[in-house]
Specification:
Oligomer: single chain
Radius of gyration: 22 Å
Strand content: 5-15%
Helix content: 40-55%
Distance between the termini: 75 Å
Strand order of the largest sheet: 1-7-8-4-3-2
Number of helices: 14
Bound molecules: thiamine diphosphate
Structural class: alpha/beta
Number of strands: 8
Order of helices and strands: HEHHEHHHEHEEEHEHEHHHHH
């Protein structure tokens, strides 16, 4: 008998295997009963507040960059529900390994706005978080944080600590070897790690369909032997629910991959002009599904939120953001010798010479 040579197209219907979990529809109406623990005014308002804070901070950071007071900055406009949902699901002692757009998660974890601004001004002291001491700094090299997460999760496993390494990557990052290596290692070693793909559908100017032939990114979990799931990344309730469950599983040695489907409403960074590669019509349609308005509509519909609440919140959050920006602008600049001071325990002689030159003003 001749061996079968045509292996054909695998039947991996995404709707069957990776349904998109959602509680709130695009307009903010509940399409299913909210999960236990989340059907609560205080919790939902705290998520709402965190998303509004993230967006207000974001606007401030962009305006600081536009006025020459901040370096290149990666906006999280439109992606607040993924960021906040992940942060709110984590336990305090879990460790976050963020990408460069996860300000909402970092803020929820206790990184200060001033530290984030400091980082984006090129001042490395912004990575020395006073709050979550063991969380990782922003990873600019795409997907590098995924392999770091393997090491963190392995440490937790060896020490028998009930903690999870939570790694956030973009959709573009899932096309990189680091990502595959990381999920594969976690699958083989059953490490306590959760990978959240913040699928904003663009890797700078590259749409997801140009990066992968798979209909979903969640199904990449299959090759690693780990569980994959998909969630509407503009529904913070759904993100909180799915990521919380993923964390519970990972804590039991079952690593997880979660694809959160969202959309980057802003430019890739302040150095980009997204109008050059995508239509205004596409972006305006996506504004109709954005996460903050969605949750506000839900809260208002339940009589849990009103005009006065909104005005008070905006006032408070703006004041908080302004205070942080003022504190950032008032910081003395980093010493030019700092670049030599933290990488080596003992400076190699060649660098010690360079350090002296900088100190003497000859560098
Ligand atoms: C290793 C590496 N290659 C290239 C870049 C340049 N770069 C910065 S962001 C980016 C796209 C990232 O896309 P994605 O992972 O989807 O994240 P997003 O920006 O959409 O949040 C690229 C290619 C980089 N930072 N690191």
């Amino acid at each position: 008998m001749k061996p079968e040579t045509d292996i054909g197209t695998p039947d991996l219907d995404p709707r069957r295997y990776w349904p998109l979990l959602r509680y709130l529809d695009k307009a903010g109406a509940a399409i299913a009963p909210l999960p236990d623990g989340l059907d609560d005014r205080d919790i939902l308002v705290s998520l709402y507040r965190a998303m509004v804070t993230t967006r207000t901070f974001d606007q401030k950071a962009v305006s600081l960059q536009r006025t020459g007071r901040l370096g290149t900055y990666a906006s999280s406009l439109g992606q607040e529900a993924v960021s906040v949902g992940v942060g709110a699901s984590m336990h305090k002692h879990d460790v976050l390994l963020p990408a460069f757009r996860d300000h909402g998660t970092m803020l929820w974890r206790g990184v200060t706005m001033t530290e984030i601004l400091q980082y984006w001004s090129g001042d490395e002291r912004g990575c020395d978080f006073a709050g979550p001491r063991e969380d990782f700094p922003v990873a600019i090299p795409v997907a590098s944080q995924a392999t770091h997460a393997v090491g963190v999760a392995m440490a937790f496993q060896l020490r028998k600590e009930p903690r999870v390494a939570v790694c956030i990557v973009g959709d573009g990052a899932t096309s990189k070897g680091d990502f595959y290596e990381a999920i594969n290692a976690c699958g083989v070693w059953k490490l306590p790690a959760v990978f959240v793909i913040n699928n904003n559908q663009w890797a700078i100017s590259e749409p997801t369909r140009m990066q992968t032939a798979t209909p979903t990114l969640a199904q990449k979990a299959v090759a690693a032997g780990i569980a994959g799931s998909r969630v509407d990344g503009n529904d913070v309730v759904a993100v909180h629910d799915v990521v919380s469950r993923a964390l519970d599983e990972a804590r039991r040695g079952r690593p997880q991959l979660v694809e959160a489907l969202t959309y980057r409403l802003g430019d890739h960074t302040t150095a980009d002009d997204a109008r050059r590669y995508r239509d205004d019509a596409e972006v305006s349609a996506r504004w109709q599904e954005e996460p903050i308005l969605r949750l506000r509509n839900y809260l208002v519909g339940r009589d849990w939120w009103g005009k006065a609440d909104e005005e008070a919140l905006i006032r408070e959050v703006r004041a908080e953001v302004d205070r942080a920006a003022e504190a950032y602008l008032a910081l003395p600049p980093q010493e030019p010798t700092a670049i030599f001071d933290y990488l080596h325990e003992t400076l190699p002689p060649s660098l010690a010479g360079q350090r002296r030159m900088v100190e003497d003003g000859d560098g």
